[in-house]
Design a protein that fits this description.
Layout lengths: L5 H14 L2 H33 L9 H29 L11 H42 L6
Helix pairs in contact: 2-3, 2-4, 3-4
C-alpha cells in the first residue's frame, strides 16, 4: 500500500514525463551551466582577493625554485579558470544569429543534442575550475611556506 493517493502518483508521473522532455532537459542544463558560471566567477574573484591580500607582495624575494612554481601555478590557474569560464559562457549562450528551427522533429533532436552538449561542457568546465582553484591554493601555500628572505 502506497502512502500517496492514485491522483498524487498520477500527477507525479506527469511531472516526471514533463521533466524528461527535451525542452525541459535543455532548460535545466542551461540553468545549471549558468549557475556554475556564476559560481566560478565569484570563486575566482575571491581567490584573487585572498592571494593579493595574503600572498607575498614581492615574489623576487623567493628562491628560484618556489618562485617559478608559484609563477607557473598562477599562470596555469589563470588559463584554466579563463577557459572554464569561456566554456560555460558558450554552453549557456549560443552564437549570435543562430538559425531558428521550426520543424518539430528537428527542434526536438536539437534540444536533446544541445542538452547533452551543455551537460558535457559543464562537467569539463567544473573540473577545469577545480584544478584552477587548487593551483591558486597551491601557489598561495608555497608563498607562505617559502616566504624568501626578509629585507
Amino acid at each position: 500500500m502506497s502512502a500517496f493517493s492514485d491522483d498524487e502518483l498520477w500527477r507525479a508521473e506527469l511531472r516526471g514525463q514533463a521533466m524528461a522532455s527535451p525542452p525541459e532537459r535543455l532548460r535545466a542544463a542551461l540553468q545549471q551551466a549558468e549557475g556554475y558560471r556564476n559560481f566560478l566567477a565569484t570563486l575566482t574573484g575571491l581567490l584573487t582577493v585572498i592571494f593579493v591580500l595574503k600572498g607575498q607582495e614581492n615574489l623576487s624575494r623567493m628562491t628560484t625554485g618556489p618562485r617559478w612554481w608559484v609563477t607557473g601555478l598562477l599562470a596555469g590557474a589563470f588559463l584554466l579558470l579563463l577557459l572554464a569560464s569561456w566554456m560555460l559562457v558558450s554552453a549557456v549562450h549560443e552564437r549570435p544569429g543562430a538559425e531558428v528551427l521550426t520543424d518539430g522533429e528537428v527542434l526536438l533532436r536539437y534540444e536533446t543534442e544541445r542538452a547533452d552538449a551543455v551537460v558535457r561542457t559543464t562537467g569539463r568546465a567544473r573540473w577545469m575550475g577545480l584544478v584552477g582553484v587548487l593551483a591558486v591554493t597551491a601557489a598561495s601555500l608555497i608563498t607562505w611556506i617559502y616566504p624568501g628572505q626578509v629585507a
